[in-house]
Specification:
Elements (H helix, E strand, L loop, with lengths): L11 H33 L2 H4 L14 H7 L4 H32 L5 H13 L6 H10 L6 H26 L2 H9 L4 H12 L1 H17 L2 H6 L9 H6 L1 H5 L3 H34 L3
């Protein structure tokens, strides 16, 4: 004798009240995703259809010629390598430094701790565009213009405040009694952190690394102002801005290059999104 379970039905009045919210959500998703769809669709659309007087929402035919043109463009591989090198180095530096700072703020009592966190919040709220001229002058006077390490340090400074704030919140949700019990069993303070607290920080490390990666990967202003003469040290956003000068009105190649540029950030987000979301939800219920 089989038994079937029926899901509780939502009252009709409740479903009616949800309609405006659902409609607003659908409109928001469409508005946000349509430019991305148009970019990808244009990248696969033949040139004759792109230049047509009546463009179609869905391409009639598909082509990979624009991607071949983008990958074969001068400097594509070099600038791709520069972006990966600068981004990963900046993110790793921010994680290492911020982890020590966040642990000191969350676990240790020392004079000026609240003032330190206040300064971190102020640094996070400050618009980085206002610091372009000071950073440029310092880089020029120290002979650090046109160098990838300079760009790496700038991205490190941009992502460090947010990383400290988030990791400090995650460390604060971990009961200190767990580390104290490990110390009673013979672990040092560093050993207790490494074996007990650090594994529980995986969601926080993923969240901050995702933010830092997207920030550094998409950054254009500093890369454009600090890399002037040494064109081989440019990153992908700067190369992409000059792509139209190389291909003229070849919008298909431009959209293909934009798609290739956005793909790594999208892949990283899709890989980490589930873990980051579950980590934030778990951290919210810890007492």
């Amino acid at each position: 004798m089989s038994t079937t379970t029926t899901r509780p039905r939502i009252p009709r009045t409740r479903r009616v009240r949800r309609l405006p919210l659902n409609a607003a959500a659908v409109v928001t998703v469409v508005v946000c995703l349509f430019p991305v769809y148009w970019m990808v669709a244009t990248a696969f659309t033949p040139t004759r259809d792109i230049q047509s007087d009546s463009p179609r929402l869905f391409p009639e035919s598909w082509t990979f010629d624009h991607f071949r043109a983008a990958v074969g463009a001068d400097g594509f591989g070099l600038f791709w390598r520069n972006s990966i090198l600068v981004t990963l180095t900046a993110v790793l530096l921010a994680l290492v430094i911020a982890l020590g700072a966040a642990y000191a703020v969350a676990r240790m009592k020392w004079k000026g701790r609240r003032q330190f966190m206040l300064m971190v919040f102020i640094a996070q709220m400050a618009p980085w565009e206002s610091l372009i001229i000071p950073v440029y002058i310092i880089s020029r006077d120290t002979d650090m213009l046109d160098r990838l390490p300079t760009l790496t340090l700038v991205y490190f400074m941009m992502t460090l405040p947010f990383t400290v704030i988030v990791l400090r919140g995650f460390i604060a949700t971990i009961p200190p009694e767990l580390e104290e019990s490990a110390q009673v069993d013979g672990c040092t303070r560093l050993g207790a952190f490494r074996h007990i607290a650090f594994p529980l920080l995986a969601p926080g490390l993923m969240a901050t690394s995702l933010f830092g990666y997207i920030t550094a990967w998409n950054e254009f202003t500093y890369a454009n102002f600090l890399i002037i003469k040494q064109q081989d040290n440019r990153t992908l956003p700067v190369w992409l801005s000059s792509f139209q000068n190389v291909f003229g009105t070849d919008w298909g190649a431009t959209m293909a290059a934009s798609t290739l540029f956005a793909a790594p950030a999208l892949v990283v987000f899709l890989l980490l999104q589930r873990h980051v979301t579950s980590g934030f939800a778990a951290g919210a219920v810890k007492g």
